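Let us practice reading a record.
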Amino acid sequence: MAYEKRFSEDVNIESPRSYYIFLEAFVFQSSIPQQKLEVDMQKNWTIYTSAKEKFEVLFPSQVIREHKGWYPDNGTSPGTIMYYSKIDALLYQINVTRIRKVFGPASNYLKPALGEQLKIIHGAELEYDKLTNFKGYPALEYKMKIKSGKLEGVMVLIKNTLYNLFVVFLPGNETEFGKFVNSFEVVK
């Protein structure tokens, strides 16, 4: 796939800030008309399972996996793994961050994690956030406006792993955020 080659060879996305700038540029290319896109959401949704990060979820198209971190990608070392799938002008993504140890209540980690995400995404504005429970785990639902569109997500903290599920989209476009998030399951 041409995108995968360009992504891995031509774009330096080692820092989270660079990654989100790249994300905005990729998802909201100037060639995409600023109008509602008609997307057949029933097509090609398949279950993706990650044995290393111990989850499964429905994605709408081919999944690309990227490891970001100083430690080896062995499924237990601290670091962040990104899984994403793009369909038209919609990006479905899960960032899995393994943490050495979480101290105190989950809210002490979830709120600052969202704050860091807001700092990383240039021009992001938080529209909504709410601490909640997701399938028995502490979570934080959120929505934000980004430079070229919107981002809707939920961060779920399970033991020492943060799962950040989100969709990036142009305003007015239909997403299957609920289908994506509700399909997420932890596997053993």
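A brief commentary: The longest strand covers residues 125-134.
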